[in-house]
Recover the amino acids of this structure.
């Protein structure tokens, strides 16, 4: 009976041997991410920066330059306009400082723009975020990522040993830093949904790492005399087929979402695809080899929890 | 691992059946759903604002304003109380968070303290079941002849809480007038209110209705001074103050500080049309006390102008032609029909206890919502078909089992979402699509483990048995981590993001459930049908 096998049945790749190359590559990418982040910053969306976002749509192609001229004439402050997905859709952004989000003030930027455009365009979406809310969103966002990583640290610590939790969390930090790095490098819109993606990546990458770690623990009991690097290799190779299978099915689903899911969640899907790739890589090449240096306990005979 | 008791089979069948029942309403037309018998679940998926269109507004209530009102009132109370007790004072006035006063004669200090302590109101009067015996004033002595009165922490909390409750009530009345379906108005934290109104044609109008305090009062116009001179820096006559009309540019008027009748006395308001000019106007009616007062004041001031002041702007300043008895009147501003209509709504609903600011607005038009639903549906179908094909190629018959489990998984997710009436958002759909990819993970882990055991020369049945039991721990550990992430997401998130966390969490639970029950059940059936299979279709 024929079946599709992405990974041969009995792989014996010496992953641990390539660890220094992987560490160097990851260190380079992480330093690069931090450097790009320092230099470029993130292209924060209005969720985190405050301001106004209006999505418009038209039957015909939208002339961005002409639209820009028209809106600049309104004197609502700094207006950014970009095509959104198709030439018949556009996204208008007005930065926070030129926008008083007060209901009792005069005509706000949204109202002026709405009045100007609503006859010729369909106003599909309006988002206004005041400075107070955006500040809080940044805070809760950072808190959530830290809380997610911390809870993983504690969970793995309880279920395994501290060495495992340190290894796993270093891999998580690696994934988060690289995701922030790519968003900074490409200057993609960084909004709340990207934050949600990062948290999901944390969960996914952890999931992948736990599967490998679980096998490492099992083998530690089974092969009491095996060299640790060989043992790690065996564990990675045994779970390799599953690692690849799950990544592929998840990527298949995400690709469908990226292509067909519409413009609104494209940023989210992009982050997820990137995160699945990075997370899978880090489980195999970072989290597992790190155990070599963290000094895992070799004698598990007294420990029967599974 | 391959044995299923009758009870288990029944339980499994029941779970699947319940899933089908609860997800069924989504495939029926609203009419059919209406006509279903009551014992069947009839609620379909609850679409979020980003999918059905609508407005989400986060409002901040300026609770400080209410505290200030209380403190302003306190100044007057202190004056009256001290005068009444014959205690001389100087420098009575507001300080930052309270009221301060000094006595002329420091020997009266104890007497003054008693008088002031009588001013404190029990906090329990503000909220039921509140803080027992707490009063709303802290009285601290300054030196040997002065006092500072501040609001206590309990009083501020209780007052804020009441302000928010009243605001929510009034917002609800205003929105109900718009005739939209199922608005959601919730308190958020200590000073905020979240308003969500689905399927609204005109979000601007909603904002206009919520943005006004709508405090209306009737004042006599003060004719002892010139408003233009006061505008240029001259002191206003005693008991009068400067107010502008709501026109552009505003015309200044001097009005008496004391309202002749307060807007709280209004009991009804409606739109009307002037019989001569056919211009829109607002008709209003006072309660009996207000009507009587209005009658008396107008009778005494025939020929003089009075001002109708709305949120500190004059909307109309007519001259009193004759005594207005009977407690009804009309406002003829320069209204459009909608303006007159909205003003009537605002007056009927009553004034907000404090001004509100809009902190956040998210409005999605119905067009985008429908497009998002369509895009999400296509993505889901494509992702689903692709994953199913891939699983079939990779695991043959066992892949087919996993696929049936995946389908049941989708049904269960839909059932749980419909049954709990959780909100499905666009990120929520993304969560479902992601679940399609990740849900097979549990089965992948099991199948790969079985293959490994086969390679270790175990018999097929032992391999299945060992595969399942060994994979169980791994699957639980691995999924708990994703579940933790989903829970944190839920805590952090607002609307759409929460929707994602919910579908992700439900997806994780149902996928582990189906892998360990349904797929296993299929495999056990197959094993039994084959007798003792020498090979596994894997």
């Amino acid at each position: 009976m024929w079946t599709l096998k992405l990974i041969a049945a009995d792989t014996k790749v010496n992953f641990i041997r390539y660890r220094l190359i992987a560490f160097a590559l990851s260190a380079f990418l992480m330093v690069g991410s931090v450097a790009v982040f320092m230099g470029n910053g993130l292209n924060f969306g209005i969720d985190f920066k405050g301001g106004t976002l209006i999505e418009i749509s038209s039957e015909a192609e939208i002339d961005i330059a002409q639209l820009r001229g028209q809106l600049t004439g309104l004197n609502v402050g700094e207006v950014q306009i970009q095509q959104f997905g198709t030439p018949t859709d556009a996204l208008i952004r007005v930065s926070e400082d030129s926008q008083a989000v007060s209901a009792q003030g005069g005509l706000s930027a949204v109202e002026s723009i709405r009045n100007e455009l609503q006859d010729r365009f369909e106003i599909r979406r309006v988002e206004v975020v005041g400075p107070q809310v955006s500040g809080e969103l940044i805070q809760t966002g950072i808190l959530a990522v830290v809380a997610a990583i911390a809870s993983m640290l504690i969970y793995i610590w309880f279920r395994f040993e501290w060495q495992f939790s340190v290894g796993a969390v270093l891999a998580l930090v690696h994934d988060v830093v690289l995701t922030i790095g790519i968003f900074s490098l490409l200057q993609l819109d960084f909004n709340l949904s990207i934050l949600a993606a990062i948290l999901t990546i944390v969960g996914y990458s952890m999931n992948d790492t736990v599967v490998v770690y679980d096998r490492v623990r099992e083998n530690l009991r089974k092969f009491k005399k095996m060299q640790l690097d060989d043992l790690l290799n065996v564990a990675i190779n045994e779970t390799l087929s599953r690692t690849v299978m799950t990544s592929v099915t998840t990527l298949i689903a995400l690709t469908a979402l990226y292509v067909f899911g519409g413009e609104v969640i494209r940023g989210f899907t992009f982050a997820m695809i990137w995160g699945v790739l990075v997370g899978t890589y880090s489980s195999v090449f970072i989290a597992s080899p790190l155990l070599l240096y963290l000094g895992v306990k070799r004698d598990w005979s007294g420990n029967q929890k599974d | 691992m391959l044995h299923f008791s009758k009870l288990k089979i029944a339980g499994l069948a029941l779970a699947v059946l319940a899933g089908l029942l609860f997800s069924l309403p989504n495939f029926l037309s609203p009419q059919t759903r209406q006509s279903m018998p009551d014992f069947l679940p009839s609620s379909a998926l609850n679409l979020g604002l980003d999918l059905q269109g609508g407005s989400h507004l986060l409002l901040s209530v300026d609770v400080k304003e209410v505290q200030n009102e209380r403190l302003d009132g306190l100044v007057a109370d202190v004056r009256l109380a001290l005068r009444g007790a014959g205690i001389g004072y100087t420098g009575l006035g507001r300080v930052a968070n309270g009221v301060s006063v000094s006595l002329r004669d420091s020997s009266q200090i104890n007497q003054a303290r008693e008088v002031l302590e009588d001013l404190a109101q029990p906090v329990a009067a503000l909220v039921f079941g509140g803080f027992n015996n707490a009063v709303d004033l802290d009285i601290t002595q300054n030196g040997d002849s002065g006092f500072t009165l501040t609001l206590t922490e309990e009083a501020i909390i209780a007052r804020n809480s009441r302000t928010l409750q009243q605001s929510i009530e009034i917002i609800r009345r205003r929105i109900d007038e718009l005739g939209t379906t199922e608005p959601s108005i919730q308190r958020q934290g200590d000073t905020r209110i979240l308003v969500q109104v689905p399927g609204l044609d005109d979000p601007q109008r909603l904002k206009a209705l919520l943005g006004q305090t709508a405090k209306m009062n009737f004042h006599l116009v003060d004719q002892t001074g010139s408003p233009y001179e006061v505008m240029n820096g001259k002191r206003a006559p005693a008991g009068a103050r400067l107010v502008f009309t709501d026109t552009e540019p505003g015309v200044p008027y001097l009005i008496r500080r004391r309202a002749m009748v307060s807007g709280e006395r209004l009991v009804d308001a409606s739109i009307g049309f002037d019989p001569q000019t056919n211009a829109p106007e607002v008709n209003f009616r006072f309660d009996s006390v207000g009507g009587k007062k209005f009658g008396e004041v107008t009778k005494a001031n025939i020929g003089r102008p009075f001002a109708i002041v709305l949120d500190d702007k004059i909307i109309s300043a007519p001259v009193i032609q004759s005594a207005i008895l009977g407690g009804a009147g009309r406002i003829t501003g320069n209204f459009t029909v909608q303006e007159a209509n909205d003003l009537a709504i605002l007056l009927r609903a009553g004034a907000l206890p404090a001004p509100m600011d809009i902190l956040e607005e998210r409005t999605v038009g119905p067009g985008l919502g429908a497009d998002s639903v369509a895009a999400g549906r296509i993505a889901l179908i494509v992702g689903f078909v692709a994953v199913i094909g891939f699983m079939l190629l990779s695991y043959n018959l066992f892949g087919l089992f996993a696929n049936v489990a995946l389908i049941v998984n989708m049904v269960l997710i839909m059932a749980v979402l419909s049954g709990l009436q959780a909100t499905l958002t666009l990120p929520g759909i993304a969560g479902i699509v992601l679940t399609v990819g990740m849900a097979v993970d549990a089965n992948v882990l099991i199948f790969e483990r079985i293959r490994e055991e086969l390679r270790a020369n175990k018999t097929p049945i032992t391999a299945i048995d060992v595969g399942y039991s060994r994979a169980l721990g791994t699957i639980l550990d691995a999924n708990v981590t994703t579940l933790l992430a989903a829970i944190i997401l839920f805590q952090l998130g607002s609307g759409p993001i929460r929707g994602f966390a919910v579908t992700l969490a439900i997806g994780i639970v149902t996928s582990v459930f189906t892998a360990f029950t349904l797929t296993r059940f299929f495999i056990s059936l197959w094993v039994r049908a084959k007798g003792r299979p020498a090979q596994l279709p894997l």
In short: The longest strand of chain A covers residues 86-95. Residues 69 and 201 of chain A are 41 Å apart (CA to CA). Chain A touches chain B through 81 residues (CB under 8 Å). Strands of chain A lie at 43-44, 51-57, 79-84, 86-95, 122-129, 189-190.
